[in-house]
Amino acid sequence: MATNLESAFHLSQLAHPLLKANGGGSIVFISSIAGMLGLTDASIYGATKGAMNQLTRNFACEWAKDGIRTNCVAPGPIWTPLSQPVFEDKETMARVLARLPLGRIGEPEEVASITAFLCLPAASYITGQIICVDGGRTVST
Length: 141
Fold this sequence. Notes:
3-stranded parallel beta sheet; 5 helices; transmembrane helix; EC 1.1.1.206; Tropinone reductase like
């Protein structure tokens, strides 16, 4: 079974010649703040997301000459069906919120909107960036 990292790598390799033939384009990976921070019980997950962040940077450098921009969105705590049981625990939720300067859990639409922006011409000078959508979690102590 392929990991998300392997899938991202292989799909990007397949897309590269098509994007190049079209005069360029944009690739946006979805990572996690776990690739930027040390988190408890997330070693393998964090390592794969950190690798995806580096893949973003490398592709940005390698493929810029072909007009292909590569960026990554790294969400923090976001309300999803997968995270809902975790956030329903009052103690866990209190710990998570205490680390978020914005004081709330993010919504999927907030991740989707930055992802869509990175694909637009308005983002044509942005490449190689890992953008955290995390309510300030990665900059808080």
